[in-house]
Amino acid sequence: MSAPIRLLLLAGLAVCAAAAPALAQTRTALADPDADRLFQDQNGAYYLKRGDRYVPYSGRVEFGRAVLDRQAAAAVPALAPAPAPAMQPPASRQAALVQPEASGDPALSPIEAAKAKAVLRTPDNGPIDYAKAYGPIEDDVYPVRAFDYKKMSPAYLRQEIAYNGPYEPGTIIVDPRAHQLTLVQEGGRARRYGVGVGKQGFSWSGTATVNSKQAWPDWYPPKEMIARSPKLASEVDKLQSGLGVSGGLRNPLGARAMYLWQGNKDTLFRIHGTLEPFSIGKSVSSGCIRMINQDAIDLFSRVNVGSKVVVLN
User: 42-68, pLDDT tens digit by residue?
Assistant: First the structure.
């Protein structure tokens, strides 16, 4: 064999060896039928599920799915599953949407860094002590005031109950008539919380999934809602994604929000905290499901992205 031919063969082998890792990663990504499934947050950003995490995706999109060619697959890191916190569901059910501000960017503002930390807050799995459960929270992004639970009907306070219904652990069940939300847990148990629901003409029912979760999120009210309320029109500001109210102590979504989608469509309904805790147990909202901030934080820490939400009729 001549020297030029040997050189060509060696060069070809080197190229194949260099391309092998990328090709293997592409095969791994495309072998999963849901590898190209996209998740979207309320700002329109796309994410792909990798292990038990969601990572940003900025590649091509066709028919609501990611186009995972070799270049796109190589650009999406394969993340190792994060260890599940103690007394939490197994890692396979610990998926939590990684917010953009939780990406590890060293240039994070103090508020963004605090939000990233708040998303990772672990729940208290001890016996429910109302004085503690509804006490002040000083170590969150913003301070959460204590709630005077003694003035609230016990039916709307957090409870651990027995459950033998048809829904799987991890499912959220909302009963608008009873003004209660139930999170099904393992071992025939469940957590029940009081909620406020939509007033006449704004209520809804059906099945959705938790598409994303946000701590102290910005709120972007629909244009129709702004048009109905001159007071609201005076409160909104120009934010990154339109007219809205920045996350904080005057934001009606409160300390946490879980965004409900049906397939690839945003329902525009949320499960969230509130500025008006004594509206819990009433039908006063524009369709969203509101909770006492302490309860919203507790539920948020127990719910995974992709969880099923059933709103009863």
Answer: 455 667 777 656 677 777 766 557 777
The answer, as to whether pTM is greater than 0.85, is no
Q: Which of 10, 12, 9, 66 is nearest to 37 (CA)?
A: 66
What does the pLDDT average to over 170-193? Answer: 97
Query: CB–CB of 255/144 below 8 Å?
Result: yes
Domain membership of residue 287 as a residue range: 100-217+253-311
Q: Do 280 and 174 share a structural domain? A: yes
DSSP letter for 135, please. Answer: S
Q: Which of 233, 153, 140 has its CA nearest to residue 193?
A: 153
Domains identified in the chain, total number: 2
131 and 32, same structural domain?
no
6 contact partners, CB below 8 Å, separation of at least 6: none
Concatenated DSSP letters for 156-216? GS-EEEE--SSSPTT-EEEETTTTEEEEE-STTEEEEEE-BEEPTTT---EEEEEEEEEES
How far is 256 from 156, CA to CA, in rounded Å?
18
Residue 11 belongs to some domain of the structure: no
pLDDT tens-digit map of 76-91: 554 444 333 333 433 3
Q: For residue 222, is it within any domain?
A: no
- The residues facing 180 across adjacent strands are 175, 194
